[in-house]
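ok trying again, last paste got cut off:
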Amino acid sequence: MEKHLKACKSSIFVHSKTTSPLAFRRIIACALLCAAISASACAKKSATASRAAEPQALPVTVAVAHRGTIAERLTLTGTTAAKQQANLSSAITGAVLAVNANVGDRVRAGQVLIRIDDSTLRAQLEQNEASLAAAQARLAQTQSGNMGASATANANLESARVAYQTAQTNLRRNQQLLAQGYVSQSAVDQSQQAAAAAQAQLRSAEVAAQQAAMTGNAQTSAQSEIRSLQAAVAQSSGAVRFISAQIAQTVIAAPFDGVVTQRSVDTGTLAGPGTALLQVSQLNPIYVNIGVPEESLPYIHAGTQVNITVDSQPGRVWHGAVATVNGATTQGTLSYLARVVLPNNDLQLRAGMVANGAFVKAERRNVVIVPRAAIFTGDTGDAVYVLAKASPGCKCSGKAKSVAVQRGLQTDNDAQVSGPGISPGTSIILQRPDQLRDGSPVSVGSTGGQAPSSSRT
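nice, full thing came through this time. structure:
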């Protein structure tokens, strides 16, 4: 281009002396056209060089600093356990007539769950009640004084014979039921004791009758008779109460509100003492037992609030408080058992679940909070990049500005920061490329839940 311009100038100089005026004007027009073309080419070259020198905006994402509360938490693992748990069994031997609950059923305290056959016991109760009535009648008759000493002794002897025969009958019946598996050995032993007592009473009555016949001392014989009859009444009354108690034990009821968690019996099964039939567990409220290491004891005590989560129900949190902390380590471990009480109205928590307990270790209120991922460590310590105003003419969202901060409490996601260059509402660069530097132009692709706003710094 410069050569063309020099040629034009030389031509104008040469022809200005030898050429006609018309030709000279043509030469001048040609020279002006060459100059215009040259200026346009220079302008395009300058613009291209300017664009090449301008740095490219780096893609970033931002989040907005806000004021709030941040808590540093201590997370420990434990297991859920029923507040109460009872294995229900029968105190007597007998066939199961009915089972009124299945696994998973909610039951109320006092609700009848199992019935045992009580027909044999009721027959024994009738016999004992008859013996009691007879003893009471003899005692009343003797005390009335209408009988002579000899007659009283004879009546007492007859009563003792009847009592002995009844005791022998009961003993034989229980021995037969034991062979069939319907009564326990303890019932047979009790019948043998009753028969032996009746036999002794019969011998005493026989001796008393002989003495009354020989001495004729009516008063002494009557007093002895009364004492003997009183003992017979007491014995018969005790037998009635004993059988009545056994009949009451044929009905098995829920000891508290809860849920049936095990069932090992069906109708027709022969129940016996010591054999578990149903298990009832109280799951509302429910316990969470957490092992606390020694270094964490300063943060956990009775009344400490705790948030409980279980892996099987992600996103749900139960809120409770520590009820007790054991004063000694759990056997075989170096941890102290902390028991947390949780409401469990919908019974979504079940005994034996693995639970995570989050305890507040430290808390700060009304502080500036930023995402933890936005903080980086530079030559002078912790810092963040904030989104500052872009330079005039820059086709970008703004420029990155490094701001030093002091880090406070932090969680897995957030951190407390302080410093003169950051305040609530400041846009913090969250995700950034490795080549980002202080002053780099940036282009915001997305935000951490709030619209970006350049900080006025």
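cool. Residues 58-67+366-447 form a domain with the conserved putative lor/sdh protein from methanococcus maripaludis s2 fold fold (CATH 2.40.420.20). The longest strand covers residues 66-89.
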